[in-house]
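ok here's 2-isopropylmalate synthase:
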Amino acid sequence: MTDQTNNRVPSSASKERVVIFDTTLRDGEQSPGATMTHAEKLEIAGLLDEMGVDIIEAGFPIASEGDFRAVSEIAKNSKNAVICGLARANIKDIDRCWEAVKGAAQPRIHTFIGTSPLHRAIPNLDMDQMAERIHETVTHARNLCDNVQWSPMDATRTEWDYLCRTIEIAIKAGASTINIPDTVGYTAPVESADLIRRLIATVPGADEVIFATHCHNDLGMATANALAAVAGGARQIECTINGLGERAGNTALEEVVMALKVRGDIMPYATGIDTTKIMNISRRVATVSGFPVQFNKAIVGKNAFAHESGIHQDGMLKNAETFEIMRPSDVGLAETNIVMGKHSGRAALRSKLHDLGYDLADNQLKDVFVRFKELADRKKEVYDEDLIALVNVGIDGEGDRLQIKHLRVVCGTEGPQQATLTMAIDGVEHTTEATGDGPVDATFNAVKNLFPHDARLQLYQVHAVTEGTDAQATVSVRMEESGRIVTGQSADTDTVVASARAYVHALNNLLVRREKSGGDTPEVNYRDLS
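and the structure:
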């Protein structure tokens, strides 16, 4: 932008650096139903590394064998980012964490313990016992790894004197980063800034370490609290893509990064993030997590750069800066939505996908191109949103145990509705008929006839990708069985077909979870310190 406000923004060379610590794969994945597959975790980690995230918290290695394998492989594949694993305050956790991250070029151990009165009661430790535990575990972590981060969980509700005491112990034991978590999203921005400022001024050795901020969005103030903490002296922000996280979520990476970029006049801090990659990773995280982005979400929402008011539209046409403080291209959003059709070739598709932030390998492009042609035959005009859906929501995998082969539905004003389904189960085709209260219910019942299960449908969402009666429908489902929560997604111009494929996709994910030895089902409690 070239307006007068942005002319006052200091150059990057003159700005202090703020480290971006992404915890999408750890804290973000703790959202109920947001569990990702092993391949999806590796993919998201690669995208985070590529966009310039400084530190990737890849998981909680002792939680499950699946988490350990994912963290280990991410550590080995990382090109630029520090790879961090989470560990509770005990030797076994820390050893397991180190085993997972030690293959990284730049490993980090992040260990924590709850220091507030409520959290001290969980392991039944008094103040002195907990102080000794902190010294013992941080020292052990530092003996394994020269990059150790320590967090006093629920710091914002911990007594001031005790918080200072525990932080001093952690610094003396070798922690190089001190993270201050607002675990329950209780703090207000003025308190966030003041807390960091006072800790740096009070705790001996505070000037020799980096202070970090980790905020939750329970009161809608996570981004404001994180930025306030930076103003108070924090130089690391912990965040997630799309604000994904427990309860109301975490600080959103895209919000703090763009706030620092756009308002450099009052926040003279720089990050290493390539902001043009924001939209791509936002869409991908939304797809693999099963958590769609709300339309009016800041930065990455569908309406973030939309203008309907006549006055706004007139102003935009004359000068984009009238009602926009950043360009769509700043976050990797195409400036124009060029329509493609059945006569568009592979080169045009590759070019368009590149403009949308997708650089596909030849085999991936071949798959998308085949489905693009099929869609173009059914749809007169194919828009950017259609292409994004094609890339992000694939078809049944060749290795999937359950695959839909044929579906026919009879529905209308007179019920019950009927579905005839042919589905391959471990390569053998089976056919059944089922009825239900509507075509989707009948289809799901048919699937259940062929593949009986006890999974409970927790969520069923349908979103029209574009306008018009021939629009693709993107369907997301979330299912739960014995504590295992899985998601499935699909897209098709036929809503019932998309629903069936999403349902079967979720069941395939459930089968993967069942088959894993220990799976990704947590073997330990996040807050258990025994």
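+1. The longest helix spans residues 495-515.
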